[in-house]
Fold:
Amino acid sequence: MIFGHLLLVLFFSVVVRSQSIREVSWLPCQFIDEHFEINEEGHRETKYEHRNAGLQFGQPGDSPVHSDVITFLVTGSKVDMRRHVKGGVDSLQCEVRRHSTGGILVRWPGHGAQEDDTWFTCTLRHAEGLFVITTFLRHSPPSNPNAAPSESENWIPVADRETVSTTATMLVLSNTPTVEVGLVKEQTLSCEFAVDHKSAQLTVEWRLQRRGERSKLFGYSSRTGQVEGSGVSAKAIGRGDASLKIPLTKHASEGTYTCSVYVPPLYGSHDIALHIMEPPRVSLNVGPDVSLAVGEEQRVACEAATYYPLDVRMEWLKESTVPGASRMPEVLKQVLFSSHRHHLDGTYSLSAFFLLRPAPQDSGYRYTCRVSHASLQMPVRKSFTLTVTENDSVLWYILPIAFIVVMLGILVLLISKLNTKQALLSPPEEEKVTLVYGTCLMAAVEPLLIWLILRIIGAATQIGT
Structure:
């Protein structure tokens, strides 16, 4: 039986993958059946059983499309769940359950209803959470005074391969089963409904569950015309639209919203989870290029600001930009974090920083702050590239200058001695001695002068860039 149902599902997914639900007459479903047992302590327990089934759209008396599973035949009515389905049928998840009216013995006012009708619900969900539709299916069992009592009030047993003929009487749907929204944004929570008869006795409510507290946001009764709260248009309710509008989202807007529609004896509701998601704004305290000399240090900080919810992951990475080098980044270990800063609007901020003391081999490396958060599809990255220069010592300039001064002093001394001996030397000899002294002195001083000038020009160029 299970293998046969899997083949049916596989066949269905291949053949009608891109078809609209209006183009098919049968959908694979799971029937979540339930019955009651008395446990060892004498208490009543509910047992659930997953059974293979199918949802078939047609007319009363139609033969089942697949006779080896339970068939819930949905006959024509003013309520048609297929009108509200978006996308192809391959994205649908179908589930049928029994429905209890909770002891409310009220005959459904729709056409063909009987006192002993039994109820089922069919829920269609989009696989990616685009919508959820719950339809109430009414089944009128044939009159049988000798029938054995059912396991639950007004329920009937359903055999394998049986066809259960039903009529859709009411549906409740939401196109926003889960909502993620930022702060100070307008947001509408979708809730629509349809009933198979006019002038229904209708009650609509919205409630919010937040941190264990449940509060009523809106209420409407067609019997009294009374409206409580705000956010829902009474005129729109007359058109089957009970959507709730939140004017400006805030931190307290987060929670589980429940839209309920009550038409005696049926009560339908959907929970809508609203999550506040505010992405972090990431910034660095340095520019895209950082230049440091050996021995210098720089405090580098990365800030993730005004994010929500609290959990955020920050890390610093170091990677080489040299072609052919390893592209696997290194995660820095010596990183410190500030405490979480909580702002008045409910958002948070966090900083991650480290002290950069570069070595010559660190030149050319890229440092990246990577921030991950639930509101981000991809982590945010902010980077800078490091250039390391050698630190020129003052001694390298003092020594050549001192040497030049000494050499000039020697030259002055030699010239003074030469003047005292001018009377003893002939003019040609005096000129020759002066030339020899001057040549030797310039040979010693000239390389140092050239080196000193080049160093000064290089330092000035680095300062200018």
The chain has a mean pLDDT of 84.
